[in-house]
């Protein structure tokens, strides 16, 4: 994949002083300010020109009153994206709005389960999954993914033993999977769908990383789900607009859709969407495909750079580019590096903030999650820091 000649992803942009979580609040998680961060999964790039222009046009109108998401332009943009990108046909009547994917996960957890019920999660898992499940007084049933030949697999027999438990009400699927980057195959999704139907388990599929697939193609759960399910996503991850807030879901069950919409309006007061999020999503899905294509080329080259640099210095790592996401999930187990000492060196000696794998559960011990959604010069800083820190601990 060649570097982009159409858009500038190379020039660093100073995000400090913009109330930016990744840069301005790095001290909250790592204890020290002024670290170079490779943490929360947003990107250090400007938004697509088509989105910027659409936002300018809407703001220039001058009135930003209450709005509705149930408009044809927004719904059709989502339908068009699924058709053009994934060859999937969706029913716009299934679409619902939410402030964020995790907000919608929490609402569905409460609609589909009771306190002390259990939810199956493939681990290591996105840390917000743990927080949301525990925060809503549910229990986690971990289904560890297995690494073999630089790919990640699910033990379907073990998954079935979990889904068969009477207290399990929901499978919270991450599709594609964060942090491993696993892309679920058609065959795997078909098996999981059959198991969930067999044991009457509801499925919530978080598909926010769906556009960032490097190997194979994304397979939306809506093409496989049989019983009660919801697919949740947003343009925020792919097009770097999380600050605008806004996500959407496809909820298969009409009664659940009605209950969800009643809950967010009556209980949470979410009756009017962030209109700029709607504008940005429409622009992204109707006009942003060229920008996204070029961005993905750039990100893939960043991942390739990480792999080549690490494997050159530490060939025993045999690090491979993940199948999806712009998050390098780096397995350091062959080096037997102490996680705590590595973090201390990265922070205090190298001056960088890189997510320790144990953030995502015990299965993440001796891993790092490196966000490469940034100019190459910053990626070089992060990779050099990892190399220097490991050498210092050998």
Structural class: alpha/beta
Compute the gyration radius: what is it? 21 Å
Helix content range? 40-55%
Report how far the terminal alpha carbons are from each other: 35 Å
Portion in beta strands: 15-25%
What's the CATH architecture of the largest domain? Answer: 3-Layer(aba) Sandwich
What is the helix tally? 14
The CATH topology of the largest domain is given as Aspartate Aminotransferase, domain 2
Largest sheet: 7 strands, mixed
Q: State the order of secondary-structure elements, H for helix, E for strand.
A: HHEHHEHEHEEEHEHEEHEHHHEHEEH
| Name of the CATH first level of the largest domain | Alpha Beta
Subunit organisation of the chains? single chain
Weakly predicted, low-confidence segments: none
> What strand order characterises the main sheet?
2-10-9-8-7-3-4
List the helices and strands and how they pair.
Layout: H1 21-24, H2 26-30, E1 36-38, H3 49-61, H4 72-86, E2 95-98, H5 101-112, E3 118-123, H6 127-135, E4 139-144, E5 146-148, E6 151-153, H7 156-163, E7 168-174, H8 186-198, E8 202-206, E9 229-233, H9 236-239, E10 247-251, H10 254-267, H11 275-287, H12 289-313, E11 327-331, H13 339-348, E12 352-356, E13 367-371, H14 376-393
Parallel strand pairs: 1-12, 3-4, 3-7, 7-8, 8-9
Antiparallel strand pairs: 2-10, 5-6, 9-10, 11-13, 12-13
Helix pairs in contact: 3-11, 4-11, 5-6, 7-8, 12-14, 13-14
């Amino acid at each position: 994949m060649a570097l982009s000649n159409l858009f500038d992803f190379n020039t660093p942009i100073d995000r400090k002083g913009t109330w930016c979580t990744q840069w301005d609040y790095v001290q909250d998680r790592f204890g020290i300010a002024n670290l170079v961060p490779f943490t929360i999964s947003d990107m250090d790039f400007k938004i697509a020109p088509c989105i910027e222009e659409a936002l300018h046009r809407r703001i220039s109108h001058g009135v930003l009153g209450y709005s509705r998401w149930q408009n044809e332009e927004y719904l059709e943009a989502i339908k068009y994206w699924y058709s053009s990108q994934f060859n999937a046909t969706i029913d716009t009547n299934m679409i619902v709005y939410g402030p964020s994917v995790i907000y919608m996960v929490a609402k569905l957890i409460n609609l589909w389960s009771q306190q002390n019920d259990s939810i199956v999660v493939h681990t290591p898992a996105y840390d917000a999954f743990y927080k949301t499940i525990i925060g809503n007084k549910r229990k986690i049933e971990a289904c560890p993914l297995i690494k073999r030949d630089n790919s990640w697999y699910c033990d379907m027999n073990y998954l079935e033993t979990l889904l068969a438990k009477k207290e399990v009400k929901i499978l919270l699927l991450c599709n594609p999977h964060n942090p491993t980057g696993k892309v679920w195959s058609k065959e795997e999704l078909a098996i999981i769908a059959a198991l969930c139907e067999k044991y009457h388990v509801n499925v919530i599929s978080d598909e926010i990383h769906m556009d960032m697939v490097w190997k194979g193609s994304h397979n939306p759960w809506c093409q496989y789900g049989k019983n009660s399910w919801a697919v949740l996503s947003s343009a925020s991850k792919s097009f770097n607009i999380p600050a605008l807030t806004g996500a959407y879901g496809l909820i298969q069950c009409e009664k659940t859709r009605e209950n969800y919409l009643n809950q967010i309006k009556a209980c949470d007061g979410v009756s009017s969407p962030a209109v700029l999020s709607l504008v940005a999503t429409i622009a992204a899905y109707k006009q942003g495909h060229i920008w996204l294509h070029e961005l993905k080329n750039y990100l893939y080259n960043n991942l390739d750079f990480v792999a080549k640099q690490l494997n050159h210095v530490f060939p025993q790592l045999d690090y491979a580019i993940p199948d999806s996401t712009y998050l390098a999930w780096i397995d350091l187990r062959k080096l037997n590096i102490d996680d705590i000492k590595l973090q201390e060196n990265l922070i205090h000696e190298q001056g960088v903030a890189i997510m320790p794998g144990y953030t995502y559960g015990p299965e993440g011990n001796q891993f790092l999650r490196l966000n490469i959604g940034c100019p190459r010069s910053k990626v070089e800083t992060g990779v050099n820091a990892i190399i220097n820190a490991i050498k210092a601990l050998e």
